[in-house]
Amino acid sequence: MKIIIVYASSGAGHLKAAQAIFGYLKQHCPSADIRIIDILDKSSFFFKANYSQGYLFLVKHALFLWGLSFWITAFRPLRIITRPIARFLNQLNTNPFVHYLIDEQPDCIISTHFLPPEVAASLKKRKKISSRLITVITDFGVHPYWITDSVDVYLVASDFTKEKLMREGIKEDKIRVSGIPVDAKLLQLENKEIICAKLNIRADLFTILISTGSFGIGPIEKIVGLLHNDAQLLVVCARNQKLRLRLEKLNYPGVKVFGFVDNMPELMSISNLMITKPGGLSIAEILIRELVPLFIYPIPGQEMENVRVLEYYGAGISISRLSAIKNTVLRLKANPGEIEKFKARIRELKKPQVLEEISNVVCKDSVGSCC
Predict the structure, then answer these.
(1) What integer pLDDT is reported at residue 20 of this predicted model?
(2) Residue 46: helix, strand or coil by DSSP?
(3) Domains of the chain
(4) Is 189 helix (H, G, I), strand (E, B) or coil?
């Protein structure tokens, strides 16, 4: 059985979800031919640059334009115009990916971004490929670009997501509530004292993890200034080296500054709260670790929808003003019972068996099992 897992490198979440699926299937389906690719590596140069750098530019410097484009492309009366234009441009710029799928003829294509299934579905309708198409939606909301004819199975984060898909016309038997795939390391229990000793961090202090994704955007420096006297802070700057240097120069006591890390599960396991942006993968990881999230400055569109879903389930707190962050942190620090109530709701929402669920859909539900 040949399985191709496809993502798009516009943000880290789609890649991390694809890597989690790849790692699990490689271990549990050893007889299968499993590959992982970035569709943008098989696209035109300008298309790739626009997809990867254009998104970053908009979320950093033109959030209004990003939110407007999200709304326009999601607004139902305008889809008759916006969707064909997007489909034409996508097909025009992904010819290398088209030829790759035709040459490889995979049995199964798993997508963690909405672009690959649209291209693959067109080939399937024209009988150029006969692959089973599985779409893993990596947000709790659903932008209509995720919905594509000829997709066989949608794997979604929650019942809320499932209901939204059904309102868009997807049949219930095509939807599985699996959760969003996360690194299997997040499922492992960690010893807090050992980790704290390794990182030279105190285990007895109320600890807050601050991370806003791979770009390290948002008012992190101001948040650290507000909170460094009230809690031990673990600050992940990711690729934002300027932010990291500024925070290291400030040298606040009780503040541990990191760049790009590969031990996020450890940092989560020793934290009481996490201040973050509400990306789908970030939320899935937080839920698995039963870490109470405080969401700041969501990007208009998918992140706003993620916040609405988490607040609907009572599993997260949205903070719209910097001045409210300190009050919220102090309230939760003084009321451990409130934190436990959040964790109880998180336990109802998290999906610890997500990778096993996906493996069952890919392997056992297929005509020929890969396991």
Answers:
(1) 94
(2) helix
(3) 2-180+353-364 (3.40.50), 184-349 (3.40.50.2000)
(4) coil
